[in-house]
Every structure is written in C-alpha cells, then in structure tokens.
Write a structure and sequence with these properties.
With 124 residues, this protein is mainly β. The chain contains one helix and eight strands.
C-alpha cells in the first residue's frame, strides 16, 4: 500500500512539473489606425504631408493632408497587412494600395488616366 501511495505521489509530481506555463495570448489584430508622415512621388514630383487613419473593427476613415489641401479617404479594406482605400479629388479618384510593416507602410497610388505614383509613410 505504501508503495502504491509513493508511486501515485511521484506520478502527480511529474505531471505537475511537466505542464508548462499557459500559452501567451495572441497579439492584437492589426489596425492601420494612426497618424503618419508621408512622402509621395507623383508624376515626377515629390510631395510631403500627413495621413491620418481613424476607426476600428473594419470601419475606418482617413484624411490625407498635403500642401494642395486635404483629401478625405474612404472605402477602406484591410486584408492582413494590406490596406486599400480611395480619395475623391474632384476631377479624378485616387486609389491607394498600402502594405504595412513595422511602424510604417509603402504603397502605390493610381490616379486613373492621369498616371500613378508611390507613397511611403512612417507612424508619428
């Protein structure tokens, strides 16, 4: 009987020691929200400004501020670390395709028949 109790006690000690700490919680889901210093190259011109993205849970809106004035950003789609959105510039629409990594993003801008450009952003 004493042998059985010792064996059971050892079994419980081994089982308790073999179970490690619980798994850490997963990281929070990605969100593009934030304020970014941006640099754009459009038709050979370098433009600087800021992009602000607000919202959560898939409902985002934003503003692009440049010396040419503000541009409202709408129709955000987030797919992993890829984000698309559009801005209505009056005579044409600008489509943005952004890839987020670390504290910034790189991407492309499509201005329809006018052409395109590139954009980079660093979180403030």
């Amino acid at each position: 009987m004493k042998r059985l109790a010792t064996t059971l006690a050892l079994g419980l000690i081994i089982a308790a020691c073999s179970s490690g700490p619980p798994e850490p919680p997963p990281p929070p889901p990605f969100t593009p929200a934030g304020a970014f210093d941006i640099s754009m190259n459009v038709m050979g011109m370098e433009l600087a400004g800021t992009m602000t993205i607000a919202g959560a849970d898939g409902a985002f809106s934003g503003t692009l501020e440049t010396p040419q004035g503000p541009l409202a950003l709408t129709d955000f789609v987030v797919d992993g670390m890829e984000v698309t959105c559009v801005g209505d510039a009056g005579q044409f629409t600008i489509a943005f395709a952004l890839t987020f990594e670390g504290d910034g993003f790189t991407g492309a801008m499509d201005l329809g028949d006018i052409g395109g450009g590139t954009i980079t952003g660093t979180k403030r």
